[in-house]
Amino acid sequence: xxxxxxxxxxxxxxxxxxxxxxxxxxxxxxxxxxxxxxxxxxxxxxxxxxxxxxxxxxxxxxxxxxxxxxxxxxxxxxxxxxxxxxxxxxxxxxxxxxxxxxxxxxxxxxxxxxxxxxxxxxxxxxxxxxxxxxxxxxxxxxxxxxxxxxxxxxxxxxxxxxxxxxxxxxxxxxxxxxxxxx
Length: 182
Known about the structure:
Helix content is 66%, strand content 0%. The protein is mostly helical. It has one domain (2-8, 23-90, 107-165): Ferritin, core subunit, four-helix bundle (Ferritin), CATH 1.20.1260.10. Helix 1 (2-14) runs antiparallel to helix 5. The model has no long low-confidence stretch (mean pLDDT 91).
């Protein structure tokens, strides 16, 4: 899957129109601001989840997501500064804590952590897709296509683990009226 998206990004880059000297339109600015704000909020949520879980496989996924988020935050932060866009406020880093010191009733289960992470990833994928398709400037489109491809690749790995662990939430199956359900 990543190869298809990487090919798409490479194709876009090869067809790149030199339009970086044009100002960003308000939609592009808003897309950057919202995506970065989402990454900033996801950061503290993932830090909290790392502090909460004692499941090593889930912790590894959370740490991988943290690295990906850090990479995307840096690239988008640098782009926004270069373009003169005001940055959204960012919450403070979460301190490291021991998962065993979190009282029951406060501590999230690994199932909840994985599903919350999945929803955050889906939200950012959808936001990146919208931003890429609404952008006029090619460099903005390419940036968001890259973000989307990275999140999609991570989401595929997360889904495999969630399926293996029985954490994935599956809606009821739809059987159209008149179809034999044998």
